[in-house]
Structure formats: structure tokens, C-alpha cells
Specification:
Elements: H1 6-29, E1 34-37, H2 41-63, H3 77-100, E2 109-111, H4 128-143, H5 147-151, H6 153-176, H7 178-186
The structure holds S-adenosyl-L-homocysteine.
């Protein structure tokens, strides 16, 4: 079974930590009352599109021989880079959940008394959680040496990211107005904007 191979064990450990972080924050925010909920067909489709790459295909690859036809081998340096990317991704995933606190949600939502978070990792970039998922998508490709299980998150997340971010920023502008527009001028989406004026 693939699970007995060292890089797959490294991936599985990261995979368990990733879902554990999500689970902890789902429990912490489950009682929050929502003021706005944009769970339309597009949003549901994008979230559902993430399931094969983030869950189903890695599990099939690790625990069954069914995806073996798509296996390949990479130079040893690649899964090492994947391991570092995975550690950074998990750290950023946890930090962004922690900084958003009660304001976090899986889908596009605003809770009652929603607060604009500009502290912690949000001081530098507007989408650290999405940055962490991008990193995760590449780490998965570098660790799981199988075309299907390794590389299926990246296209699904690309669709999610490019559709979600403009809608999310629009929602934040509607809610927070100039406060969010100023924050946008001071931060990058995934990468800090070093040339910005003074920080908030
Ligand atoms: N795009 C962010 C947050 C993802 S979670 C990131 O990648 O880190 C999605 C929810 O977070 C959205 O529904 C929105 O309500 C909320 N959100 C996004 N940015 C926020 C911010 N700076 N402060 C408070 N809430 C925010």
C-alpha cells in the first residue's frame, strides 16, 4: 500500500493536522449568527469542486492501489521542498484562522458584529488563508507522486480562488467601505505590498 512510503506518511501527518485545524475552528464559530450569507449555486459548486482533490483522491491513492496507473517518480529534492512548503502552509493556515477568530467562515459570509481584521498575518496580506491553500496545493503535488492525487487540488482551487476573491472583496467593500478600500491599498492579496504607504 502507498501509505507505507515515507513521503506519503509525511503527507498524511500534514493532512490530519490540516483537517484538525479546520475542525477546531468550525466548532469555535458554529454558534455565530450570520448577517449575510452568499451560499449560492456558484459558491456550492466551487466548494464541492474542492472535495475530490483535497479528500477523495488522496485517500484513494494512500489506501488503495486504484490510482497506481498515474504514479510517477520525482528527484528526492522535490518532496523535501514539498515538506517545507507543507509546514509553512500549515502554520499560515492556523495563523489565519486564529487571527480571523469568530469572523472566519468556510463560505462567503458576514456574521452579526463582523469585525474587519487587519492584525497578525492580515496586516501584510488580505488572503493569507488562500495563500496557505495555494501552498498546500503545491506541497501535495510535490509529496504525492501521482498525477491525479498530487495535482488535482491546484486547478480546483484556482477556480475557487479566482471566482471567490473578487466577490469576497466586493462584500467587504460593501460592509466596511473606505476602511476596506484603505486596507486594500496597504496590502497585497497573497504577497505583501512593500511599496504601500504607512500601515493602518
Ligand atoms: N480571504 C481570507 C479569509 C478567508 S475565510 C483569507 O484568505 O485569509 C472567508 C471569510 O472571511 C469571508 O466570508 C469574509 O467574511 C471573511 N473575511 C475575509 N477577510 C476578512 C478580514 N480582513 N476581516 C474579517 N473578515 C474577513
Amino acid at each position: 500500500m502507498n501509505i507505507l512510503q515515507p513521503w506519503n506518511i509525511v503527507f498524511l501527518i500534514g493532512f490530519v493536522i490540516y483537517y484538525r485545524i479546520r475542525h477546531v475552528f468550525i466548532l469555535r464559530t458554529k454558534d455565530e449568527k450570520k448577517e449575510v450569507r452568499r451560499m449560492d449555486g456558484l459558491e456550492k459548486g466551487l466548494l464541492a469542486g474542492m472535495a475530490p482533490g483535497t479528500l477523495l483522491l488522496p485517500v484513494l491513492y494512500l489506501f488503495t492501489p486504484w490510482l497506481a496507473f498515474a504514479d510517477y517518480r520525482l528527484p528526492i529534492v522535490v518532496p523535501w521542498i514539498g515538506t517545507v512548503a507543507m509546514i509553512v502552509s500549515l502554520w499560515l493556515f492556523w495563523r489565519s484562522h486564529s487571527d480571523l477568530g469568530q469572523n472566519w467562515s468556510v463560505s462567503l459570509e458576514l456574521r452579526e458584529n463582523h469585525e474587519l481584521v487587519t492584525r497578525g498575518v492580515y496586516r501584510f496580506i488580505r488572503h493569507p488563508m488562500y495563500a496557505s491553500i495555494w501552498l498546500w496545493a503545491f506541497a501535495q503535488g510535490m509529496l504525492l507522486q501521482n498525477w491525479l492525487a498530487g495535482w488535482s487540488v491546484a486547478p480546483a482551487f484556482a477556480a475557487m480562488y479566482f471566482m471567490r476573491v473578487p466577490r469576497e472583496e466586493q462584500l467587504m467593500c460593501e460592509k466596511f467601505g473606505d476602511q476596506y478600500r484603505t486596507y486594500m491599498r496597504q496590502t497585497g492579496r497573497l504577497w505583501p505590498r512593500w511599496t504601500a504607504g504607512e500601515k493602518a
